[in-house]
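Researcher: Here's a chain I'd like modeled. Treat it as a single chain, no partners, no ligands.
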Amino acid sequence: MTLFSAHHIDSDPTNNDLLNLIPLCPNCHILDQHDPTAEIDRSKLRLFRQYRNPTILAPQFQPLFHRLKFLDEIEDDTDIKELQRNAQELISFVADLEMGTFYSERIADLTRKPKYASITIIGDPVSEARRRDRLVKEAQEYRDILRTNRDAVIALVVELLRFQSWQPQQ
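Model: Modeled as a single isolated chain. Structure tokens:
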């Protein structure tokens, strides 16, 4: 028989609203959620609530979760090179996990920046202005691609968890 503890997401034990409670095994509840030196990451708890996969709460998931977070932090002025670096780091990290080749290829497809062909005449102000406008448009399109594909990337990462040997014991 498996026993569960009710964890209060907002850390307020008097707030028993069902949306504020998630079931955790006693070990996860004590070790992962009530570690006095660790802050509760509400976005991880939301992810757990959405997918109901206890591996999300395993300490081994933290490095992968850390690499996913850039998808939640995309602003209209976020540097494209930084987004590409973050996407590549996630892809490389996933590739080293069990079944990682399969999942990293799918994630790469979802996070790939489109390539555009163009010609710019150096020294021509009109051509250079068009180039700047095109770069701004391409950057926004890439941000939109990442925002649109965010949930699909996260779903792939969560699906990948079932193949990892560090799944929590039930």
